Amino acid sequence: EDKNFDEVVKLRGPVIYQNLYLYLMQQQVMSRPLSTMDKNCRVYRIAMVHVGHPACGMNAAARGFVGVCVSKGYEAVFIYDSWKGLINDKVKRVEWNNVHHWTSAGGSFIGTSWETAVEVGMLQIARKLDEHNISGLIIVGGFEAFQSAYEIHQKRKIYPELCIPVNVIPACIANNVPGVSLSLGCDTSINQICKACDELKRSAFSIQKCVTVVEVGGENCGFLATLSAIASGADHAFIKEEEFTI
């Protein structure tokens, strides 16, 4: 009767509230001209770089990043081809019109690499971040992204240019990023594994006394093996976290 819709949304939990906020923000970006966005704040130059294996959701994260920057009046910048791209000055400012169609595309349109920040050269990275006037850094990727952020944090006393806000958006099919429960792309990979297992079951049912062994990725993390085994109805899952004698 009171039509207190905001309170109803909050009662549904923080996840629903946050998702609704992000949706409304994206609608605001798409429906309003750029000239009417918030221009009263300081113009921060925020950069995004992809590090590690490509994963589903990387492009969607890049799209959302640009949407947030545009709505807040910040300047969104992409670093193409990961850390080596930064050293080679592959840094480009982007607008909403450049990324609005990136929602469902997999992989990484801006390029990614497995090399961490230290492997490429921390001194060069620090100099280039300062040269391009980067106010903040968003790193999207798997364990290599987490490791790069940690390396940047460790080198701040040596290189003052690295004393900027650094955030990591976990995007990894193996879901092996420390400190997070889910990564972008891991749900898609589990779905693909289950589809493959369903096809294998059809062949296995026609053969008696047959054991089908399915090997999945994940490196030293048993997330993919465990969840896909449960979802596909496997008899057992052998993972790195537990000793097995096969």
UniProtKB/TrEMBL annotation:
<protein>
    <recommendedName>
        <fullName>6-phosphofructokinase</fullName>
        <ecNumber>2.7.1.11</ecNumber>
    </recommendedName>
</protein>
<dbReference type="GO" id="GO:0048029">
    <property type="term" value="F:monosaccharide binding"/>
</dbReference>
<dbReference type="GO" id="GO:0046872">
    <property type="term" value="F:metal ion binding"/>
</dbReference>
<keyword id="KW-0963">Cytoplasm</keyword>
<dbReference type="GO" id="GO:0030388">
    <property type="term" value="P:fructose 1,6-bisphosphate metabolic process"/>
</dbReference>
<keyword id="KW-0418">Kinase</keyword>
<dbReference type="GO" id="GO:0005524">
    <property type="term" value="F:ATP binding"/>
</dbReference>
<dbReference type="GO" id="GO:0061621">
    <property type="term" value="P:canonical glycolysis"/>
</dbReference>
<dbReference type="GO" id="GO:0042802">
    <property type="term" value="F:identical protein binding"/>
</dbReference>
<dbReference type="GO" id="GO:0005945">
    <property type="term" value="C:6-phosphofructokinase complex"/>
</dbReference>
<keyword id="KW-0547">Nucleotide-binding</keyword>
<comment type="pathway">
    <text>Carbohydrate degradation; glycolysis; D-glyceraldehyde 3-phosphate and glycerone phosphate from D-glucose: step 3/4.</text>
</comment>
<dbReference type="GO" id="GO:0006002">
    <property type="term" value="P:fructose 6-phosphate metabolic process"/>
</dbReference>
<keyword id="KW-0808">Transferase</keyword>
<keyword id="KW-0324">Glycolysis</keyword>
<dbReference type="GO" id="GO:0003872">
    <property type="term" value="F:6-phosphofructokinase activity"/>
</dbReference>
<dbReference type="InterPro" id="IPR022953">
    <property type="entry name" value="ATP_PFK"/>
</dbReference>
<keyword id="KW-0460">Magnesium</keyword>
<feature type="domain" description="Phosphofructokinase">
    <location>
        <begin position="45"/>
        <end position="246"/>
    </location>
</feature>
<keyword id="KW-0067">ATP-binding</keyword>
<dbReference type="InterPro" id="IPR035966">
    <property type="entry name" value="PKF_sf"/>
</dbReference>
<dbReference type="GO" id="GO:0070095">
    <property type="term" value="F:fructose-6-phosphate binding"/>
</dbReference>
<dbReference type="GO" id="GO:0016208">
    <property type="term" value="F:AMP binding"/>
</dbReference>
<keyword id="KW-0479">Metal-binding</keyword>
<dbReference type="InterPro" id="IPR000023">
    <property type="entry name" value="Phosphofructokinase_dom"/>
</dbReference>
<dbReference type="Pfam" id="PF00365">
    <property type="entry name" value="PFK"/>
</dbReference>
